[in-house]
Amino acid sequence: MKNRINQLFETKKENILSVYFTAGFPNLSDTVQIIQELEKNGVDLIEIGIPFSDPTADGPTIQHSSEVALKNGMSVKQLFEQLKEIRESVKIPLILMGYFNPVLQFGVEAFCKKCHEVGIDGTILPDLPLEEFEEHYKDTFIKNNLHNILLITPQTSEKRIRQIDNVSEGFIYMVSSASTTGAGKKVEDFHLDYFERIQQMNLKNARLIGFGISDNATFTNACNYANGAIIGSAFVKSFDKNVTIKKSISSFVKHILLHA
Amino acid sequence: MKYQVNEKGYYGEFGGAWIPEMMFTNIDELKTRYLEIIESDEFRKEFDQLMKDYVGRPSPLYYASRLSEYFGSKVYLKREDLNHTGSHKLNNTIGQILLAQKLEKTRIIAETGAGQHGVATATVCALKGIKCVVYMGALDVSRQAPNVKKMKMLGAEVIPVHSGNKTLKDATNEAMRDWINNPEDTHYIIGSVVGPHPYPDMVARFQSIISAEMKSQLKEQTGNEFPTRVLACVGGGSNAAGAFYHFLDDEQVELIGVEAAGKGVDTPETAATLTVGSPGVLHSSKTMLMQNTDGQITEPYSISAGLDYPGIGPLHAHLHKTGRAKFLSATDEEVLQAALLLTQKEGIIPALESAHALAALNKIKMNPEDINVVNLSGSGNKDMETYLDYFGY
Ligand SMILES: Cc1ncc(COP(=O)(O)O)c(C=O)c1O
């Protein structure tokens, strides 16, 4: 079967909304419900975060959620167990996002196989650099119909972007500015010249902009320069103890998609 | 040159640059330029001058006669404790500040555990008039108050880190996050032979002055530049890398690294990475790590904050794997006794870290004619409170 990420980008070219959440947060067993509710409310793509003890590329919100998730008992094994039947109720593409060490300890080959088995379409592993991926793991990913999504930043050279575009399948993750994850940027904070520069490169892959997208204004703005955008910290922050997950997710997504 | 880093930054299976793309440009700039810069005449000249007149090198190689008598074997101490700021850490920060200047960086960041590397970094920033930000676990900030005050007096900004266990590992995470957020103007002075390539090689080169001096001092004092063995403590492993460096290919010299066993390697309170660890990726390097089966990093423990790290430099992971170096560990208790022994036999109060290397003398078989060189990486000034508490003076 065709990879669901490719299917998505073939049928929808703009205003794609991708949402990140940390598996095991706020509660260990929320994973499946969060995924289902995100789909129901019109989210196009979901990134399921595997918590790690030392998330160097993340800001305080995701660091905190990872810490709580680990305390709750989340692990790679546990996550695959929770996702075992996810494809019976969810159709949109699912991506696992996390740091490389937990994947390495699970076994990269076993991890890719398991992803394929439960219906995961891609991975984002920020500390698995392009070179290591190409040399050691690319074939295993391909064999399991798994797209490894690579990142670019405002500092990435044109030559390297071309290289990344060549190796990439699915889409390219455009980090909005030199930063760790974290919500709350204003539209004025974005490097529009960088967005425009990449837009003009005519890359073969679709692009989603992430890091710092937090509301309708930043989402809409990012969508002007790419196929869509990714929201992480703002969503993780939005969980409210006093509201059900169902209500909390529907009001969050409504607020993002306001006019889109 | 069997134990040197290869082009891709690996020592055997360990090393590399497992960096998020956000760090790529900085690391790439370093990787392409560090050798050309640090091997240039201009750099060498300034580095050598500062080593001599500012750090106070060469540090003496001292024949410890009363200690030798006690052990029934010849013991020499490489006196890194006599360097300015009291440890080997300054060798590396001097090198890196000169490099940062050549790279035209205007802001320095660093991580610190006990505060020795933080003080060494704040010192070179003061020397060069460059802005300095030091990340330190909140727990360490409260445990190591005098070093925090020193850094502030030197003009550095000390930022307490409240994530994780609030110790060295978390300070390192935070420094990396800072670098990701400030890629243009900032250089990150990493304090040991850890982190992404080229840091392990670069820091080892700056610290290799230790073994270069050992060789010529031994030649002068004993007629032979090769000792029987070299002993050094290992946190990340920079002082050990420096003490081993010029002997790596001389296989007749026995190399011994000593890790912190803490309360014991069979207890959860230990920092003996090579004994309890397994291969993994942390802080942008593939190395040996203390971790659980799910790949989450375990919190280390040691009485010496400078050895309280759940990883080890990839060079040492390789030396361990190939058997080129032997790695032992010493418990808090053994270390305190070793520190007291040195103090009362030679009138030298060592850093708790360095006392780990000394404690290993009790664990190995030595012949009377052996030449044992212990790298005394630092002075005990910073550890007086711990010593006084324990010994009850
Ligand atoms: C005196 C002293 N020795 C040794 C170490 C351990 O570091 P490394 O193993 O990198 O030399 C430290 C670290 O703070 C230190 O202060």
From TrEMBL, chain A:
Signal peptide: none
Family indicated by similarity: Belongs to the TrpA family.
Natural source organism: Maribellus comscasis
Record protein name field: Tryptophan synthase alpha chain
One GO CC annotation: cytosol
A Pfam family assignment: Trp_syntA
Described purpose of this protein according to its UniProt entry: The alpha subunit is responsible for the aldol cleavage of indoleglycerol phosphate to indole and glyceraldehyde 3-phosphate.
GO molecular function, one term: tryptophan synthase activity
Summary of subunit composition and partner proteins: Tetramer of two alpha and two beta chains.
UniProtKB/TrEMBL annotation, chain B:
Catalytic activity: (1S,2R)-1-C-(indol-3-yl)glycerol 3-phosphate + L-serine = D-glyceraldehyde 3-phosphate + L-tryptophan + H2O
Sites of N6-(pyridoxal phosphate)lysine modification: K89
Tryptophan synthase beta chain-like PALP domain: residues covered: 56-377
Cofactor(s) annotated in UniProt: pyridoxal 5'-phosphate
Enzyme class at the top of the EC tree: lyase
GO MF: tryptophan synthase activity
Gene3D superfamilies named among the record's database cross-references: 3.40.50.1100
Keyword annotations from UniProtKB, A to Z: Amino-acid biosynthesis, Aromatic amino acid biosynthesis, Lyase, Pyridoxal phosphate, Tryptophan biosynthesis
Similarity section: Belongs to the TrpB family.
Assembly and oligomerization: Tetramer of two alpha and two beta chains.
Stated role: The beta subunit is responsible for the synthesis of L-tryptophan from indole and L-serine.
Protein name: Tryptophan synthase beta chain
Source organism of the structure: Maribellus comscasis
